[in-house]
Amino acid sequence: MKIYVAYTGGTIGMVPSDQGYVPGKAFAADILRHLNDYQPEHGFDVYSYKRLIDSSNATPEDWQTIAEDLQSKWHDYDAFIVLHGTDTMAYSAAALAFMFQHSRKPIVVTGSQIPMIKKRNDALSNVFGAVDAVLNGPNGVFLFFGGKLLEATRARKIDTSALSAFQSPNFLPRGVLGIEWEWRKMHLPKQPECFQIPPMASGHVTILPVFPGVQATHWEGLLNKPVKGAVLYSYGTGNAPDQDANLLNLLQEANDRGVVIVKVSQCGKGAVSSGTYAVGSALERVGVISGRDMTFEAAFTKLHFLIALGLPALEIKNTFSKTLAFDIL
Ligand code: ASP
Questions:
Q1: Which residues contact 254 (CB under 8 A, 6 or more apart)?
Q2: What does CATH list as the number for 205-320?
Q3: Any ligand 1 atom below 6 A from CB of 11
Q4: Which of 207, 245, 263, 271 is paired with 252 by a 20 to 30 Å CA distance?
Q5: In sequence order, which residues have a C-beta less than 8 Å from that of residue 94 and are 6 or more positions away?
Q6: Model pTM?
Q7: Is the CB of 159 under 6 A from ligand 1?
Q8: 160 CA from centroid of ligand 1 (Å)
Q9: Is the minimum distance from the CB of 56 to ligand 1 under 6 angstroms?
């Protein structure tokens, strides 16, 4: 198999500096040596991005850059591995899943909690696990970390220090790597590949936090131009205060001018539901749609993706509710 490895930055390849860890330039050559040692019968190319970043600096434009890079190499390789920082790995992985729907080749995003230059690290086990996943696993877009192959749109970073830093709270892992792989069998209808890499633009999607005492003034600036979509970080099953008319008016007014507002739960696990509580129904009456069991990261990137496609608000709402990449039930 010919495997393309894109090194975008992140802890995995970092080295110490006066200010703390920063991405290192020598990493690409080092990891290539390890890969050739590990699987000499397969062919690897490692490409180090010119602008290596801590993924906290990643923007929607960077998702597009990674996608365009993979697309430009698509016919030259059988599989793709993206090495990425963990902080925003779930966002980039989900964005790739929306851009490479029903991919017939594997794309696996991974990284590490400890840099590879440290004697004890999780870098090699994650990279080798990602290699095993593309050699033996399903096609599609995944995030591999700490022995788990997770659906890219379902993964979340849930731990700042554990080596098993990612989880998929509402969707079983596709594979778990112990001594051997344990695969989750899924019978999926064959669908044509649908690759779309629209022009992503920072600032088109925002977050509306819900917290005790939240007021319209907290949200006003967040909903200003150029915002076209918002993820409302609601309580529990999709609730927010319904006794402040200013808050609801603000949402109604944003909805009326074409801002698509999606609610997901702060709980992190489970789904938001419709009509369980009056406080939740109030949101729906002003046009907020349900993100059901989606992760915050997937809802955020899906809004970015649909907005970048240039769809009108009503079509975004309709498409949002359908699963594009295992993202919503
Ligand atoms: N701040 C780092 C990054 O996201 C963290 C990591 O890679 O684990 O690039």
A1: 223, 227, 230, 261
A2: 3.40.50.40
A3: yes
A4: 271
A5: 152, 153, 155, 295, 297, 298, 301, 302, 325, 327
A6: 0.97
A7: no
A8: 10
A9: yes
Catalytic residue (choose from 8, 11, 65, 206): 11
- Return the residue matching tokens 């967040």: 222
Q: What is the residue-level pLDDT of the chain in tens, covering all 329 positions?
A: 999 999 999 999 999 999 999 998 899 999 999 999 999 999 999 999 999 999 999 999 999 999 999 999 999 999 999 999 999 999 999 999 999 999 999 999 999 999 999 999 999 999 999 999 999 999 999 999 999 999 999 999 999 999 999 999 999 999 999 999 999 999 888 899 999 999 999 999 999 999 999 999 999 999 998 999 999 999 999 999 999 999 999 999 999 999 999 999 999 999 998 778 888 789 999 999 999 999 999 999 999 999 999 999 999 999 999 999 999 99
Radius of gyration from C-alpha coordinates of the chain:
20
Q: To test ligand 1's pocket by mutation, which of 53, 55, 57, 166 has the most ligand atoms within 8 angstroms of CB?
A: 55
Tell me how long the chain is. 329
What is the Å distance from ligand 1's center to 85 Cα? 4
What distance in angstroms lies between residue 133's CA and the mean position of ligand 1's atoms? 22
Same topology between domain 2-195 and domain 205-320: yes
Could you tell me the distance, in angstroms and rounded to a whole number, from the CA of residue 321 to the centre of ligand 1? 31
Known catalytic residue: 11?
A: yes
Domain ranges of the chain: 2-195, 205-320
Beta strands across the sheet bearing 260-265: 205-209, 229-234, 260-265, 289-290
Class for the domain spanning 2-195:
alpha beta
